[in-house]
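Title: Prediction job returns without error message
Component: structure pipeline
Severity: low
Priority: P3
Assignee: unassigned

Description:
Job completed but the reporter wants confirmation the result is attached to the right record. Sequence as submitted:
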Amino acid sequence: MQKLEIQNIINNIIAQIDQNISIFSDASIEYGKMGAALLYYYCYKHFDNKEFLDKGELMIEESIHLLSKISTDNEYIPKYKGDSVAQTLASFGKGLMFIQNNFDLEYDFSEYYEYLNDTLYETVKQDLDRKDYDYFSGSLASGYYFLNRYIHDKDPYSKQVLSEITASILDNAVVLNQEEVYWPSSSYSNQVYLGLSHGSAMIINFLTKIYEYGILETEEQRFKDIVYKAVSFLMKQKRNQINGFFPYRYPNSEIVNETQLSMCYGDLGILYALYNAAKKFQIKEFEDEIIHMLSESSRRKLKHSHTQDSSILYGCSGLYYMFADLYNRTSEKIYVESSQYWYDQITSYWSADKETLAGFQFDYEDDQQIHPSAKYSFFWGIAGIGITLMQGSDKKLPYPNELLLTGI
């Protein structure tokens, strides 16, 4: 698709967000007003137009108002399974940090970070009591806020909280056959998930970043042993099924078949976490096999049944970012080619004849049980698609990795 056509799609996305801005009813990046704020800040940089800066600042102000209302009313209504007040607060904070550090603006949000530090630490303690390490419902919702805060500002308070989260993760690993470990998901009936959004890959990814950024304050050999056993656990679940190397859960009762290809579910998120862990912890025995599986996954092509739309969480945009991240880590040509392929596929779910949602199609858009903001949002909808279309065509714009499941 020509650059002018892409630009027209971006313009239509902006118009749709403008017209439906009131649909955002929380302060998160994923579902809410901070996702709209991000779109406007990207537009500000992309178009060099202060009108978008004003819109972005208004979204921040409205997000703050919504958070104040949650505090005053002492009530939070979840918008999806696993949603939590901690996720919304942490998401808002991550959004502030990203905006402050990426758009050459003289912002200082320190007073909000201090408030979030104290409030989120209280939620972390509750999450750790439940042994809940989920990215959305558990301690990693706040954990990634504190990780970003520490990396950007070397905030000692954040380092201490991260150390407590890490210690709890290590202490509560479930040992299998003395050679493997995993973590049940307390928010999901203690099922054992494998993936990047709720499972072992999510935990491995977080622990790898704790190690990578020098936040480790526990006995290093024990830390490495548990990561090794977590990697071993995932590798033991591998099946002889190209395009479906890993099941979704353990124990596995699934029919062996091809699985989803997205940031949220499927092989790629698991392999992303495994690859980074194998490199950082020098786990040589699995490295070649992991690279082979990543190479196979990078050759997968668009199938609606496996990559359901153009979004970040479930679709082509998220795959674009994941392969771009892998390329930036490895300089391997196959990953930059895959990244470009998935960027080009974003418009596969677009039609010039569709008047709503800037022409994009989502399987769930008529589902009354899904919150109506989803299809306009950053994670699930057209705001994230618009950001991706801008970033992929304008490399001076920042990658939003620190706001994604992959993390900073």
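Comment from assignee: result matches the submitted record. The two ends are 31 Å apart (CA to CA).
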